[in-house]
Amino acid sequence: MIKQVREKKPLIHCITNYVVANFQANGMLALGASPVMGDEAEEVEELASIADALSLNIGTLNQRSVESMLIAGRAANTKGIPVVLDPVGAGATSYRLSVIDQILKEVNVTAIRCNAGELAAIMRKDWSAKGVDAGEGEGDLTSIALEAAKKYGLIVAVTGPVDIVTDGDIVHEIQAGRQVMSSVTGMGCLLSSVTAAFLTVEQSVDAVAEAVQFYGEAGENAAAVSYSPGSFKTAFIDALYSMNESKIQKGGSR
Amino acid sequence: MIKQVREKKPLIHCITNYVVANFQANGMLALGASPVMGDEAEEVEELASIADALSLNIGTLNQRSVESMLIAGRAANTKGIPVVLDPVGAGATSYRLSVIDQILKEVNVTAIRCNAGELAAIMRKDWSAKGVDAGEGEGDLTSIALEAAKKYGLIVAVTGPVDIVTDGDIVHEIQAGRQVMSSVTGMGCLLSSVTAAFLTVEQSVDAVAEAVQFYGEAGENAAAVSYSPGSFKTAFIDALYSMNESKIQKGGSR
Amino acid sequence: MIKQVREKKPLIHCITNYVVANFQANGMLALGASPVMGDEAEEVEELASIADALSLNIGTLNQRSVESMLIAGRAANTKGIPVVLDPVGAGATSYRLSVIDQILKEVNVTAIRCNAGELAAIMRKDWSAKGVDAGEGEGDLTSIALEAAKKYGLIVAVTGPVDIVTDGDIVHEIQAGRQVMSSVTGMGCLLSSVTAAFLTVEQSVDAVAEAVQFYGEAGENAAAVSYSPGSFKTAFIDALYSMNESKIQKGGSR
Fold first, then answer.
1. N or C: which end of chain B has fewer CB within 10 A?
2. A49 is in which domain, residue-wise?
3. What is the per-residue pLDDT across B219-250, written as a single tens digit (0 to 9) for each?
4. What chain B residue is nearest to C233 in terms of C-alpha separation?
5. Is B250 a domain residue?
């Protein structure tokens, strides 16, 4: 599917946080997509309207950017392009949780890409998340992902030691990637945009699974170059650039 | 001219976008300039007043930062220091175009550094730009650059496969750089600030041409180290740091 | 002390500038701490309340983020966690100076981490700082640091060719680090957060000195890999990740 992404060179409108914006933009360029970043309410409707997908990230949200996310989200829905939501630090503050609820209510989101703690927070499950980290909890993650997918009518991709991708029906369980990926900020954020790029080829749970698998394999390739986070970050961008088709390990439906 | 830049160590006030700010600041330091970034209306008049040049970039503009750009621009004009405008994604939204028009009306801009699609948008020419990418069009780029330089009474540097630098009279055509430069976000943005640094030595079309030539050669040196965008980005900062005088290939006037 | 930092994996709430946010977050992760960045007034009280320390940085301050810094600072004080202030470009504008005065008045700051020019500005000493650079001045830096520590009742860490760390009583003079560190943006900003992480182990002048020493040695290790700023930046993150205990060179009290 990466070949189709590169042929299409989709324009992805990213409203994202300033911590990861540079890494995210460079990752998208390396992938073969074209990122455009802008969060001013005056222009986001127009930006979303020329884009092939919209990628929303609340990592450093503020009242101004949240308004822009809602405007862009509605414009994306009008145009029918995929919308990916990255609910960074969902459980860290009640403000984040209320913003996520509002986005999920007012925007037709195609896919949520998050970690375990963020998913648990959205679904109001007990989880020991800390800040923007995944944390640990007791529930069965696959069940929570299925429940979330059904509740909101969207695709859920929850990444961690094992990645789970589901639309509430089909479940892909993916084992790809390396631990060092959690030592680089924005690895999840960039994956969310990469997911948006794959969804421009096909709006399906399989496309999301393929994005996650592809991304994990890029992480493995980069980890083979260096396992130190500074060098790894550089090698990861190189890996996204040089990788061709991934071997998809599909999980079964349940 | 790079020697004079380094001797002067000019302070460049950059009001720029959060996607490229880190890369831009590191590039300026590697060059031998001193960047200061701040976009709060309360302080930009003072920041511009202590600076040797002002570098404006609308990549992630918002109403607050646009107001600051106008204040800083007027302060720079009062002090008589060069002002460089980077009209990122000019054609992507009508808001961007109206902001550019306003800046060009209220601020005496010394030089515009942009890509073909952005120049075409400013001059209302037909062009197939997409988001913040250069895109493709039919018109003769040199003619459009000459027209823009005359219309606004400034230097135009439009970069691409061939770079064109003109003040409406003299035209430099420069062939330097490598394709991989377009796979790293902020390469154009950083060049705009580098141009501002060169303009502190001499406010002339030749200084802009030399900045563009120098920058392209740094890109060639970095591409010789690596052609993968992650590694290239790192090598490019190293190249800016280690490079001395460039060989200027001057184009003729026409 | 780094072992204790890594065992604790402290959550550091950073309200920082968009120029260095990515580097700062990656440095904190490499160190073994967990950064969370957010500057919306609606949520900073909650963010500071779940954190182990608060790191404030005014590099690209604006009225909105200043309000958030004050809210977060008061919440951190209520919880009793350390607060580190990085007064970036203190002397560059009167707005910055007034904001620093306000923070020092309304928030109980544990430590200030700055360069010579910034310290001189805060203490209204004559100093030839330029923008956000350290600059040069005539006064005895150690005396000014002692005076500041006593006046505000906090720890002062002023970094430069020789680093001075004092609580107004004990003085540590530290010689560690390499000149190339001043060619990478955010080196000081990241140190301020690293200081916050060390202060979560022990709120003492010794903890700050150890953070400064550790950081300088990481710089030496990275400089041994590369002395070009692009490669150095990458090597520095790797060095933070791989370094274990540092050899502390304690200065005497005076």
1. C
2. 2-242
3. 999 999 999 999 999 999 999 999 987 765 44
4. B234
5. no
